Fold:
Amino acid sequence: MPDAPAPAPAPSVAPSALRFRPLGLLRQIVSWATDGGPLFYVWMTVLTCIALVGVHAWTNQVVQGMAVTGMSDHVSWGLYISHFTFFVGVAAAAVMMVIPAYLYKDHEMHDAVIVGEMLAIAAISVCLLSVMVDIGRPDRFWHMIPGLGKFNWPISMLTWDVIVLNGYLVINVFIVGYLLWCRWSGREPVKKLYLPFVFLSIIWAVSIHTVTAFLYSGLGGRPFWNTALLAPRFLASAFVAGPAFIICALMVLQRLGSYPFGDKPISFLVGLIRVTALINLFMLGAECFTVLYTGSSHAASLRYMMFGLHGAHGLVPWFWSAVVMNVVAAGLFLWPGLLRHRRLLVTACVMTFIGIWIEKGMGLIVPGFIPSTLHEVVEYVPSLNEWKLTAGITAVGLIIYTLLLKIALPILSGWTPGMAVGIASVDDQHRELFVRLNELVSALRHGTGGAELDTVIGFLDDYVRLHFTEEEALMADAGYPACEAHKKLHAGFVDELGVVKQRLSDPGCDREALSAELHLHLRDWLVRHIIKADRAFGTFAASKGLTVH
Amino acid sequence: MFGLVNAVLCAALLSLAGCNGTGPAPVPGPNPDAAEYSVTIQAPPPAAGIATGLQDHSGQAVTAACASCHSTKLPDTSTRRGEDLDQFHHGLQMAHGDRSCLSCHNADDYNSLRLADGTSVAFAESMQLCAQCHGPQFRDYKHGSHGGMTGYWDLTRGARTRNHCMSCHDPHAPAFPTLRPLPPPPDAVRHEENSHE
Amino acid sequence: MSEQGSCGSGCGCSGDGGGGGGLSRRTVLKAAGATLGAAAFAHAVAPLTEWAADLSMDEFLQKHYRELTPDQLTQVLERIENDTREQYGREVNVRALPPQEGVSFGYALNLSICVGCRRCAEACHEENNHDRDSHQSYIRVFELSKGSIDFAKGDPSYDHPVPQDDKYYMPVQCQQCDNPPCVSVCPVEATWKEPDGIVVVDYNWCIGCRYCEAACPYHARRFNWKAPEIPAEDINPDQGYLSNRVRQAGVMEKCTFCLHRTRDGRMPACLEACPTGARVFGNMLDPDSEIRWVLANKRVFVLKEELGTRPRFFYFFDE
Structure:
């Protein structure tokens, strides 16, 4: 639903800034991160409240001891470590969009990659918090810091996990930060600087989940975990749950009009889940067969989870609901028509997300402890305190994700100080061009029809012509030598716009596709044109002392 | 394979840790030539007497020495069960295989016991008598793997006290008594299958 | 839809944030929201300040046990004695007995004569200053059926006269493995194997991640889910830094073969409590020791040998 974006007020950054100004960026970031409509404020308030409940629960746990959890010496890891394991997968999966975007240079995926990598940052934050709240002596956290404490590397898999998780966080922060900064400051990203890290992040993503699986599979005393299939299963399920979340995030962003993503990232991710969901179910089945058919006492954990053991049935409903959700979702993903039915797509994503959350948490960490190593069956039910804390941590993750998106999306889709030409009137017009282009994309996406759409596109068309005329006049006045070439570039853009108008008048036009195309081609054309051609003129004008408005 | 890698890594790490100090250094161990403290075996309950069921004026049970009766009465070598004893030994439960009284008691001198070869042994040396048949147990006992003890594992630093056979085994009914166990740990779970048995 | 002002319009969301045109209504509201949030946060973490006040700076900054100088160790032991006096009202003596050269401890248990009376578990409970409320002990005794050594068919919760004719009893405690999985997994080296074979925990270095508890195949490790509660008169004042001193909340603990006794030459408490003498303890490097005789003459076995943990706790049956 379509609220057409309101005309934007003038940005706070001095338009004539040709140099990069860190303070300006900071102010801009703060304002992007904290400004929004009522829905944004409600969303952030609710998340903050949940996060505070979590903080309070953690305080309670530190003061009273871990006895406030449902854990025991028999089941010594519970909801926190389950949550941790699941979100390592979500973080690892973000990389699945990097592969097509950078390895195969799929341009349309580029912006969506940033959405994925930001998810990685938020998910890793959730992981680190989940581990922090699980340790009994948070005051001794410094014992784990290499150099200060005693870091049992390379023997302890947990130290490997600390390294890979923090490393992954740093790599993703760097890639996202660098690309956004380049966009902001109007530079072409230097491939040598970021591409190695992009490829490193692909390997690293696999490593975070592999190492996390090794945490468990390396324990010979826990037959339920002590299987070589654990790491492959972790990766397969991660590549289901992570993309499912990104699909939902992209759809929400599209719906809110925050950013006009095309549909290609979504269809790519659906295609990915089609494969990974089946692989995941296949491996689960293979594991079940091997364990159950041999019928050794090693099957006890699985039997407990599937059917109950010695009268204890605590995990049976969890297990079967996860299986049902994952199977139904896998079926839905296989159906070719899913992409056209957005609601069903969201349902499938949510189902598989929850299904895998159970499969990797309550369905993997907890049964590893039941029965215990001496075959005692002590059940585990998370306490209210654990639920509160887990919800709080998740809320913090969502807050981080929301704020990152709030900062990144405007940089990706709008005018940035890096595009400043140095001539106030030109810069103002450029800003306005972006606003109108985004309005058009948004109107198309929300199915605004008829007269209203004509108004929007007419509005853009008029403004383009007005701007080009004025800019060309300025160039002529200044005696700009490349004026003619520049005019040709402008004419090309006007032509393209004309084609768009024509296509729109065709009643059978695929508006979704058109909006994506508009967004990508026209906007990218504009960005490049301003950064290269217009700024060249700006430099020329400045050299002539022509910084007039 | 991984064990090997692990061992190598451990060794490397230990050598690193060595530079940082490894806590209080080991102190010299027990000196094999040092004088050893003693091992005391708890004295068996004084035997050589039987309760008469009477009490003296201070309330003490009155016992009669074995010889008071047995010096005049001839023993019945066929008595093998407690129920067959009709005088003085009322209620004595005999549950020690198919031994008869005279397998151990010395018919020639009731103030001592008798080994299978006829040698008499004092009551205080009764362990020899047990050892005739219970060789493996006696061997285990001698090597500290049968019978309770307290004190020092390192006899150069302290003494040890050991149980006697009779601390736990009544010679007439030597089976170890059934005990009420101390309560189970509160987090222990009774398995369903077992509770149905 | 509500995001219109921010992102739908590209860069247009920056309006009031830093316009410089005085305080807008939105800036004031944002500041108020931030203040409210900060106040709520401060309220939520308030109990922490009390908790942190109990934690002395010396304790917080204490180095790893193996890196303490003798002077520092003396101070630490003194501090622990003072803390125990303050918190539990009991005068105790905490020692840090070093391992002895030429001593390597081993333990064996004769399953033929164990009657399952749980005296050992109870002695452990009392000796090692366990929480009285949870009745914690490092030893669990399993009642198993003759003819099977399957713990899945065992029962640690039996409460009937023992021994039952068709059963035998298997006490399980830390096996002091020579290849201990719990030591490998510890991220901070808070647990390690001493030269005399005992796996110990520095209760002041452990961060409480419980990875070792997950790694142990013998359910030998225990976590202090809360601070132990013990009446002053029940506290065993003969304490060791690495063994039975009163533990803090949030750290791991385990059986140390009663280090504070055994490094003094004495028997472990569980052995002394055993009425049948099923337990054999001693120095495996001494060829004349009882434990060596058992290893040489009995057909001993270890639990879960296939895991390669190489326990130094052995079980055997007579004949």
Observations:
- The CA atoms of residues 115 and 405 of chain A lie 7 Å apart.
- Chain A touches chain B at residues 72-74, 152, 154-155, 310-311, 376-378 (CB under 8 Å).
- The two ends of chain A are 38 Å apart (CA to CA).
